[in-house]
Amino acid sequence: MNRLQANLCLICVTLCWSTEVIIFACIPDDVLPFATSFITSAIAAAILAACFFRRIAAEMKRAGKEILLRCLLLGVLKAAYDIMFLYGLKYFDVSTGAFTFSITVVVLPVVLLTMRKSVDKKTWISVVLVLTGIVFALGSSLAGTQVWGLVIMFIGCTLRALFFVKLNDFAKEHDSITLSVWISVVGAIISFAIWVILQPATFGAIPWSGTVIAGLFIYAYFIVAFAQTLNVFAQKRATAAGATIIYSLEIVFSLIWSAVLPENLIDRVIPSPFHVIGALFIVAGSLIEIIDFNAIRRVKSRHE
User: What is the rounded CA–CA span in Å between residue 249 and residue 288?
Assistant: First the structure.
């Protein structure tokens, strides 16, 4: 797999992640997010373990405790930024809140430099474009009433950036499916612990129905098992900064779904002109990261 193929895989992952809003519509609001996280992570881990048991066993024999400790770190980071996002989004509406996820793109180069990792020139250009898109989209939402929301989201985005950097490092050294399974297991354990504290009745508090069960299984397969594993696989060839910039397309896809899908599937939200302009800047930033300009120049020089 070359860099372009890895980026295309990441776009596919981002497209899958953007459908979360549709799947969540099938799950009642009184089902805690931690319950959803535990059930879907546990199902995904079980599916992958059943299908790739020998492959996982071989990697565990090779990597041993090292991969467990690394997945523990990844699982804790992921759970931490998920919690920060959960509470930070309460300060924003759906469209504005979605754009705050892209702050990760702005934070990530600083995290990379702090860890003494290089950042390409075109990545800086992409970051500036995405940042411009965020500023356009947020607009008046940067008022004082959202300050705490922005602080919480900024902390969450910093943790998310650190997660992407470490995931990118570990994906190059370990089997993708094994990493995905153990990240899901750690996430499930943490989510269950918080779920028990907040809602001791756990499974008894869920209003079970065919729609709820279908929603949970679809989310577990497409979002956790498939998209997460494909993401880890693509990270072997992608850069952490490039992957994060491509992830910002999730907001663009989510805006499209919220505008075009029928109201029986999702709460329709018509994006404002500022949201549209912001989305265009994010698309431009992603294209600069995806396109291999050096390869284009090489092709041109051959024809000349």
Answer: 13
Name the DSSP letter for residue 222.
I
DSSP-based three-state secondary structure for 291: coil
User: Is 34 among the domain residues?
Assistant: yes
Helices (H) and strands (E) in the chain, counts: 16, 0
- The number of distinct structural domains making up the chain is 1
For the record, the structure tokens of 108 come out as 């990530």
Rounded CA gap, 289 and 223, in Å? 24
Q: Report the alpha-carbon distance of residue 152 to residue 41 in Å, rounded.
A: 24
Give the domain range for residue 187. 3-121+142-238
Per-residue pLDDT at 195? 93
Written as one string, the DSSP assignment of 176-198 is HHHHHHHHHHHHHHHHHHHHHHH
- 209 within some domain: yes
In this prediction, residues 233-255 reach a mean pLDDT of: 83
In b/e form, how buried is each residue of 212-234, taking b as 16+ CB within 10 angstroms? beebbeebbebbbbbbbbbbbbb
* Backbone dihedral angles phi then psi of residue 250, each to the nearest 5 degrees: -55, -40
* Tokens of residue 46, six digits: 């079980």
| CB burial of residue 250 (10 Å; 0-12, 13-18, 19+) | buried
Most confident of 18-22, 98-102, 207-211, 289-293: 207-211
Question: Which whole-number Å values give the CA distances from 191 to 79, 80, 209, 253, in the listed order?
Answer: 8, 10, 22, 27
Contact yes or no for 245/24 (Cβ under 8 A): no
Residue 16 resides in a domain: yes
Q: Which residue has the tokens 């405790």?
A: 65
- 286 in any annotated domain: no
Residue in the structure block whose two tokens are 């922005």 = 150
| pLDDT category of residue 97 using cuts at 50, 70 and 90 | low
pTM of the model: 0.82
